[in-house]
């Protein structure tokens, strides 16, 4: 290569994999986590659901995330969470999966799907999409309530009601 050719060669800038500008101050994420065995009910079981909801409640109470919605499907879950700007999403989800795998015996797939909500996206639209998932899957009718969903307002109430029912069994 001649001296002119070397000088004229374009140099690529390294990609920035750090948090985007808005993510540095906190962001809301739509997360999907799947089980290894698809098509088998592993999450919509009373004991497993209680472990997942209790872990989510603890994360919310300790401000590791702000839970907006957590909905369980038989072989995956959807959640809408607010994440502080100093948190690393991959570490947060990794720890959540590790804890729930140990305590609930859940075999999670290796990765997860995440989508950061942009300013133009409506959080209400994402909530409606997530809540419609059991209807689309034919698990409930359009006017039925799905028992495996909680948000930050009813998280404690859901767990308390489940514990009371379990104690009465």
Structure overview:
The structure is a single chain. This protein is an alpha+beta fold and 169 residues long. It has a single domain, classed as Transposase IS200-like (Alpha-Beta Plaits, 2-Layer Sandwich), CATH 3.30.70.1290. It has six helices and five strands. Strands 4-1-3-2-5 form a five-stranded antiparallel sheet, sandwiched between helices. A hairpin with a 3-residue loop joins strand 2 and strand 3. The protein starts with a helix and ends with a helix.
Overview features:
169 residues, alpha+beta, Alpha-Beta Plaits, 5-stranded antiparallel sheet, 5 strands
What is the tally of beta strands? 5
Level-2 CATH architecture: 2-Layer Sandwich
- Residues in β-strands, percent: 15-25%
Structural class: alpha+beta
Largest sheet: 5 strands, antiparallel
Within the largest sheet, what's the order of strands? 4-1-3-2-5
The tally of domains stands at 1
Name the overall outline.
Answer: globular
As for the CATH topology, it is Alpha-Beta Plaits
What string gives the helices and strands in order? HEHEEHEHHEH
Spell out the CATH superfamily: Transposase IS200-like
Please, how many helices?
6
Gap between N and C termini, in Å? Answer: 80 Å
Briefly, what CATH class? Alpha Beta
- Stretches with pLDDT under 50, minimum 5 residues: 160-169
Please tell me the overall pLDDT: 84
- Radius of gyration from CA coordinates: 20 Å
């Amino acid at each position: 290569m001649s001296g002119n050719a070397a000088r004229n060669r374009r140099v690529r800038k390294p990609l920035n994999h750090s948090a985007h500008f808005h993510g540095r101050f906190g962001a809301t994420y739509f997360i999907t986590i799947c089980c290894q065995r698809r098509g088998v009910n592993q999450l919509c079981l009373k004991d497993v659901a209680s472990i997942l909801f209790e872990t989510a409640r603890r994360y919310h109470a300790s401000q590791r995330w702000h839970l907006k919605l957590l909905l369980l499907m038989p072989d995956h879950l959807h959640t809408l969470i607010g994440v502080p700007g100093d948190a690393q999403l991959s570490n947060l989800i990794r720890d959540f999966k590790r804890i729930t795998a140990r305590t609930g015996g859940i075999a999670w797939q290796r990765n997860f799907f995440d989508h950061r909500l942009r300013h133009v996206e409506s959080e209400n639209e994402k909530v409606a999409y997530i809540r419609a998932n059991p209807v689309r899957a034919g698990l409930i009718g359009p006017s039925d309530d799905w028992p495996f969903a909680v948000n930050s307002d009813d998280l404690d109430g859901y767990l308390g009601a489940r514990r009371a029912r379990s104690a009465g069994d």
